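Field reference: sequence -> structure
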Amino acid sequence: MSKTAKLAALRQRTDNDLLILIERELDRGIALANVASARSSPMCRQAEAAYDQARILLQKISGLCPNDSMRVAAKLKELRQALDRVSGSTGADRKPAPLVRAVV
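Structure field:
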C-alpha cells in the first residue's frame, strides 16, 4: 500500500470518527435543550455549546456522503429548533442557519 493510500485511509477513519463525535454531541445537545427551562439555564448553555461545537467540527470533515450530510443537517436543525423553543428565546438569540456542505 502506498503512502498516499495509507494517508487517505487514515483521513477516512478520522472523518468517520469526527462524524460519530458530531452526532453524539448533537444528540446530547438535543436532550439538554429539551429539558432546559430557560435560556439562562446551565442546560441551555451546554446545548448551545454542543450546537457550536458540532458546527465547528463539521467543518473539519473533508467530505460527507449525501446520506451523512442530510442526517447531520437534520440533527443540527432539530437542535436549533429545540433551542429556539426554550423559554425566553427571542429572535436576537438565534444563530444563523448551519453551514452544511453539499457533497456532489
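Note: Residues 3-90 form one domain.
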